[in-house]
Description:
mainly alpha; 6 helices; elongated
Amino acid sequence: MTDTETRNHLKALATALRHFHSALLDVAKREYESKGGTIDGPFTLYNLVLNDASFQWLRPLSGLMATLDEVIDSKERLSDRNVQDVRGALGLLFSPADTNFADFRAGYERAKNDKRVQDTEKRWRDLVRGLEA
């Protein structure tokens, strides 16, 4: 792939990951509200995402997305190494062998049967498979 093709593919992946994150966030929000915590607007939700332990499990994915955006926005030519790094980071996030992301995987396990989570996950996984070509 050329630099432009790689960059465009990574942009599509970043968008797909944002949709996936949004779907996971909706599940976390429903879990929080089912325990009696009303979320009365986007500012309250934003503060909860930043500060409440109920949303902490999403932070590794948020960090990965921020790093991916930095890579895409860099002026340097993108290489196969950048693509390998993205695939590797996503692999670690979902790998039971890496205990650093156990909280993320536990939250994902609670959310993975949600239809929107499934649909958005399929999209980003398809894009990752496209990067392997």
